[in-house]
């Protein structure tokens, strides 16, 4: 039991320290708070000299409350929540049953048996909450930890149910196994939860560094990274690769006439429209101020020209509504394909740019093939 208390305090310290970062996500704080509560509860249950109310009743309720908070954190992580009523019910069940076996029908065996099964169940519910997300690579470790910890506690419950006297537990193989599995499960859970948060941070960083904040399209760094991959994939598969450069016409006039927020909305609108035309593996990047790049895998020159013409017509037809203003805009486009050039994305983009500027010179609101 001493080992388990030490491991609980250690994993709690780890989770609390990781949640101290000012911008830590709420789920991380729920996990830390839940572990603090569970640690306090565990110490209360095992501290000699405390009155039975704290030792045998409140201790269990505080552990259950802690597990409720951990479950809430997991639900928040999965873009869900767990109401305070549910947490109160989780806590209340532990409180009532522990009080029953302490005051109404006093039985240490029954109390330990209940706590083993009940806390096992709560840990398996936590595992289930993670499993619903189905991202095993990210949350598989924490899930395994909850299953393991639940298993260890369940074994403890089984032992108490089948062996009358808790005192002869030390000799039991079941108890020895659970003494190993429970702290191991706690350690795995702590590392698993921290790993889940790390993945989130990494994903957030990746998005920040590769996506344009205004339009959600790829930025230059994102285009460089993903464009290279798309080009290589097309080349290896023997498919043609098309690039469409899109530039809003007279964008400066839109900004000067309606203001920058309207200009921003035009850019967002254009990105939304283009995205509607994209297949999952196509790329859209914001190349400069009002210039976008579309990279299409497996699309030849004729098909790319058709896509560009369809887009141009749609842009010309659409109206951007913003702050009681209705704004129309057009775009010029340059289309190039690996059939005429090669698969080098930088060369394709500069050839597409040249074709796009030709479209500008030819009067704008048109598509020209390079
Ligand atoms: N609202 C807004 N404006 C931007 C943004 N980035 C660049 N711009 C503006 O876009 C304008 C681009 O102007 P120009 O390069 O002259 O292009 P244009 O007016 O579209 O002219 P043509 O391309 O020749 O039709 C500049 O006034 C920039 O300040 C942005 O993120 N938001």
Automatic annotation (TrEMBL):
Q: Which domain of life is it from?
A: Bacteria
The record's top EC class is: transferase
EC assignment: the record states 2.7.7.65
- GO molecular function annotation: diguanylate cyclase activity
Listed under catalytic activity are: 2 GTP = 3',3'-c-di-GMP + 2 diphosphate
**What SMART domains does the record tag this protein with?**
GGDEF (SM00267)
> Which CDD domains does this one have?
GGDEF
Keywords associated with the record: Membrane, Transmembrane, Transmembrane helix
* Domain GGDEF, residue spans: 239-370
Gene3D superfamilies from the xrefs?
Answer: 3.30.70.270
Q: Where are the transmembrane segments?
A: 53-71, 83-103, 109-131, 138-155, 175-199
Record Pfam families: GGDEF (PF00990)
Q: Which InterPro entries match?
A: Diguanylate_Cyclase, GGDEF_dom, Nucleotide_cyclase, Rev_trsase/Diguanyl_cyclase
Q: What protein name is recorded for this chain? A: diguanylate cyclase
Q: Which organism is it from?
A: Duganella radicis
Organism ancestry: Bacteria, Pseudomonadati, Pseudomonadota, Betaproteobacteria, Burkholderiales
